[in-house]
Specification:
The protein is of the alpha+beta class. It contains three helices and four strands; from the N terminus they run H-E-E-H-E-E-H. Helices cover 42% and strands 19% of the residues. Strand 1 and strand 2 form a beta hairpin.
């Protein structure tokens, strides 16, 4: 073996550190689990792209992430309606499989979604 095995929590902490740097997320943290999927929360910045997302566009981003992740992992449409995004006054909460959350973050922060 190459090294000690990491627990799920340790793996998630590494993923959070990577996302915080890659997407410049302030106060990113794991806040719990919903239906077995992790929930993350981070501070919403002033004039955030999240402010300009219409609900229909956000739902489309979530659905595309679910479908894409399902295909990548070989489970097809089994991720349908498993993820959600809550846009609060000061924070954003995202829940879903780690791959789905990463696809949502990629779409919102790294691609032109307007």
């Amino acid at each position: 073996m190459d090294g000690p095995l990491l627990t799920k929590g340790e793996l998630m902490e590494e993923k959070l550190q990577t996302w915080a740097k890659k997407y410049k997320l302030d106060n990113l943290r794991l806040i719990g689990f919903q239906g077995g999927y992790p929930m993350i929360e981070f501070l919403k910045k002033e004039e955030s792209v999240w402010e300009h997302l219409k609900e229909s566009k956000l739902n489309k981003i979530i659905r595309q992430a679910e479908m894409s992740a399902g295909m990548e992992l070989g489970v097809g449409i089994n991720f349908r309606k498993t993820a959600f995004v809550l846009i609060n006054n000061e924070t954003i909460v995202i829940c879903g499989h780690e791959l789905i959350m990463e696809k949502i973050l990629n779409k919102v922060f790294l691609q032109n979604i307007r």
